[in-house]
Write a structure and sequence with these properties.
alpha+beta, Uridine Diphospho-n-acetylenolpyruvylglucosamine Reductase, domain 3, Alpha-Beta Plaits, 3 domains, FAD-binding protein, FAD-bd_PCMH-like_sf, FAD-bd_PCMH_sub2, FAD, flavoprotein
Amino acid sequence: MAALDELTRPAGDDDHVGGVPARLVASPASTEEAAALVAAAQGLSVVVRGGGTKIHWGPPPRSLDLIIDTRRLSGVVEHAAGDLITVVGAGTPLGDLALGDQQLAIDFHPGATVGGVVATGASGPRRLHYGTARDLLIGITVVRPDGVVARSGGKVVKNVAGYDLGKLYTGSYGTLGLITECVFRLHPRPAASAYVRSTAPAQAVSAILAAQVAPTAIEIDTATGELAVLLEGTASGVRERAALIEKLLAGEVSETAPGWWGRDPWAPDEIGLKLSVPLSKVPALVDSGSALRGSAGTGVLYAAARDITEVERLRALCVRSGGHAVVLTAPAEVRDILDMWGPVPGLAVMRRIKEQFDPGYRFAPGRFVGGI
């Protein structure tokens, strides 16, 4: 219990998750401190917090004794520029990464941390070209709920030895333990970029992809009726491809992104959803009448819903299309009566994984699919 006494403080008014107040807050500064803390916290319910930008995502925990704040687990541990990899502390704000002419190509909310983006499986416009955090993560260090430190992957892109814990922990919402370090594959920072903005319909996405211009992102916003394409590369290459897409879409080229680019479409008092459908079903989703914004090039869009009826309508549309709809955030009075996750295949497998890693259901209890 010494680690608890040394590393924790009483929780304050702002130390809550989904309205559930914590009793204690701890801020370990290393993997070793984090392991000692978790080992000493047996019997306590735990939620991990990074920058707090997504702490309101998902259902509230059933109970909350301890918040583990990761912001002291920060900094670039290693940057091997020749190998295009970096090792980063989980509490590092993504906006603070200074990697010279290289980049970690993950879109993020201002203030979001590396660990938080991985834990929530968040992604943004550039997922079309670079993939998501799950695709860029090649190694991970975690503290299991029993206090044991586990590592997976390595510092080379083709490392396939052992179990891929990184993919298991990505999108797990902190239910399997504490992420302390991540190893990522990097990309060169592009020399030039341009946006082609148009009012072309969602059906135009297939023509953009068929044009073989290697777009970095294809985003759509129903509130403005705008379709926007991001192109990156050499100055001459971007200029040529932008001209082609400008003509194809009857649009205009801009050096800056639309004001809505990469932003959530919902207001604080609205219900926010993540919708995933096959590309062929994107036009039908866009025409559903809801406020949508997101990646028309991958079929991952975000919606603002006014009430539960609209949530059910969008969820039914996605399921019929072979996709799914997850409620990310909602006002407290709605969240308490809403199935935020909806039908999710593989729930039995997820329960077995949870029982293997966290048999006491201590980490983020009730925050994940099926009350896991």
